[in-house]
Amino acid sequence: MEVNAVTTNDPPAWAHLLGYAGLVPFVFLSAAFWWPDRISHSFISHALSSYAAVIISFLGAIHWGLEMRDVQPAATNPSPWIWGITPSLLAWLATLLTSPFDLLFMAILLWLCYRVDQKRYSHYQVASWLPMRFRLTLVASVACMAGSVGFYTSSNAVT
Asked: Which of 2, 6, 32, 67 is the most exposed place for a label (fewest CB within 10 A)?
């Protein structure tokens, strides 16, 4: 073993940077609901919901990647593989909901993904990623909820 070999599965600095940079669209789009009516709130809601769906799909796909890394020829448990596609399907269904319900469902899905990660990451020996995953989930889900409230209040505003 090399002296400089990494012996931990902690997220590298670039993963932190990219993960937190991925929050920019969540924060920007949810804040856009509170700006003067320069951009259609329907457009903002669609953009935020679509971005959340992409991120949720990515969170499921991570499980496929981790399973592929450790696949055994005699592996018979399909659960990780099924879970890997479930977030994508649920997020797609959420995009079919009307606003603000799509964004509320996305917030719930983000937490569902985190909960599954809590249970599975130790198996994959990447539990050290959970603190970052928690912070990313917290900000992304709050942004979806804020966007939902922003859409609801803007669509019910008396003019």
From this structure: 2
Rounded Cα gap, residues 65 and 107, in angstroms: 24
User: CA-to-CA distance for 151 and 21, rounded, in angstroms?
Assistant: 24
Considering the domain boundaries, does residue 15 fall inside one? no
Q: Report whether 90 contacts 57 (CB < 8 A).
A: no
pLDDT digits (tens), the chain, 159 positions: 344 444 468 899 999 999 999 999 999 999 998 887 777 889 999 999 999 999 999 999 999 999 888 777 666 788 999 999 999 999 999 999 999 999 999 999 999 999 999 999 999 999 999 999 999 999 999 999 999 999 888 765 544
Residue 7 located in a structural domain: no
How many domains does the structure of the chain reveal?
A: 1
Q: Which domain holds residue 134?
A: 26-32+41-70+77-155
If DSSP codes are grouped into helix, strand and coil, which group holds residue 122?
A: coil
